[in-house]
Amino acid sequence: MTRTLYVMRHAKSSWSTGHADHQRPLNGRGRREAPLAGAYLATRAPIDQVLSSTSTRTRETWAAAEEGGAEANEVNFYQQMYNGRAEDHLELLRELPSETQSALILAHFPGVLEIVRGLAVRDDHPGWPSLDENFPTSAIAVLEFDGEWESLGPGDAKLIDYVIPRDN
Fold it and tell me: What is the annotated signal peptide range for this record (predicted)?
């Protein structure tokens, strides 16, 4: 069975609010671009499971993505995804039920980039040069793999899309 993994970095957040890092909200650009990410996700099948960091900016990103049309059957927030590394994300993915067809990781840099680089085989996909440079806010990498979540590991996935929603 082919499964889909979306990996998304939260939208742009504000550094000027005086809030602690975990509580930083989205800034104006983030509030404009997160619905664009949602519009992109809406062109795909509804997501079975969203695995998100507990931070304010990831929560606000998902809410704005839903306003843009993104849909998910279930959304869960995990403290270990806040400043989580690839291995933290992979641990949660491996716990997904076998009936889960698609999942979205909504988290932070550098963990989002690490999980994509760790799971996806490097090929000639045009998104790789951009991924070599950065994984900017609101960016979404789409990976596909065959097999079960519980056995997902390095090199098991293929990058099939990479988008950076911007309002220009």
Answer: none
Q: How would you classify residue 18: left for phi > 0, otherwise alpha for psi between -120 and 50, otherwise beta?
A: left
Structure tokens at 14: 């504000």
Question: What confidence score (pLDDT) does residue 87 get?
Answer: 96
Residue closest to 77 by CA, chosen among 46, 98, 56: 56
Q: What are phi and psi of 159, to 5 degrees?
A: -75, 120
Q: What is the mean pLDDT of residues 141-159?
A: 97
Strands (E), the chain: 2-9, 47-53, 72-78, 102-107, 120-121, 140-146, 157-163
Domain edges within the chain: 2-163
> Across the strands, what pairs with 142?
6, 161
Buried residues in 55-65 as b, exposed as e (16+ CB within 10 A): bbbbbbbbebb
Cβ proximity of 157 and 144 under 8 Å: yes
Q: Is the pLDDT of residue 3 over 90?
A: yes
CATH number for 2-163 (one of 3.20.20.20, 1.20.1250.20, 3.40.50.1240, 3.90.1310.10): it is 3.40.50.1240
Query: What is the rounded average pLDDT for all residues in the chain?
Result: 95
